[in-house]
From TrEMBL:
<dbReference type="Pfam" id="PF08584">
    <property type="entry name" value="Ribonuc_P_40"/>
</dbReference>
<dbReference type="GO" id="GO:0000171">
    <property type="term" value="F:ribonuclease MRP activity"/>
</dbReference>
<dbReference type="GO" id="GO:0004526">
    <property type="term" value="F:ribonuclease P activity"/>
</dbReference>
<protein>
    <submittedName>
        <fullName>Ribonuclease P protein subunit p40</fullName>
    </submittedName>
</protein>
<dbReference type="GO" id="GO:0000447">
    <property type="term" value="P:endonucleolytic cleavage in ITS1 to separate SSU-rRNA from 5.8S rRNA and LSU-rRNA from tricistronic rRNA transcript (SSU-rRNA, 5.8S rRNA, LSU-rRNA)"/>
</dbReference>
<dbReference type="GO" id="GO:0030681">
    <property type="term" value="C:multimeric ribonuclease P complex"/>
</dbReference>
<dbReference type="InterPro" id="IPR013893">
    <property type="entry name" value="RNase_P_Rpp40"/>
</dbReference>
<dbReference type="GO" id="GO:0001682">
    <property type="term" value="P:tRNA 5'-leader removal"/>
</dbReference>
<dbReference type="GO" id="GO:0000172">
    <property type="term" value="C:ribonuclease MRP complex"/>
</dbReference>
Length: 112
């Protein structure tokens, strides 16, 4: 409408409840071509942090493909148009339950 008013409002995001403030967080970025077996090995090693009660309540690993990769999931052609999204993310909890989120670009098939 023509009577839209400007606002300094940016977002409604707020931290979900319950939440815990932690003193430290650790971020590690690995780039390059990484085979699936190495990703599994990394997940297994990271889960060892749950052995120390004070170290971690949860952890997350995000694996992101290259935007211009010729393939996306398995042997499917990668349909690059704008963003080239191609990723999956594990959120693993202390009891080894996990959430798995997968994303693909507009022109890619859903992952298996």
């Amino acid at each position: 409408s023509r009577d839209n008013k400007s606002s300094s409002f940016l977002s409604t995001y707020c931290c979900p409840q319950p939440n815990t403030i932690v003193e430290k967080a650790f971020l590690c970025t690995i780039t390059g071509f990484i085979i699936p077996e190495k990703i599994i090995q990394l997940l297994e090693q990271l889960c060892c942090y749950f052995g120390e009660p004070k170290l971690a309540h949860w952890l997350t690993v995000t694996v992101h493909g290259f935007a211009d990769s010729p393939v996306s999931w398995r042997e499917s052609e990668h349909g690059f148009h704008k963003g080239g999204e191609n990723l999956y993310n594990f959120v693993i909890f202390r009891n080894l339950d996990y959430w798995l989120q997968m994303a693909v670009g507009t022109y890619d098939d859903c992952p298996p």
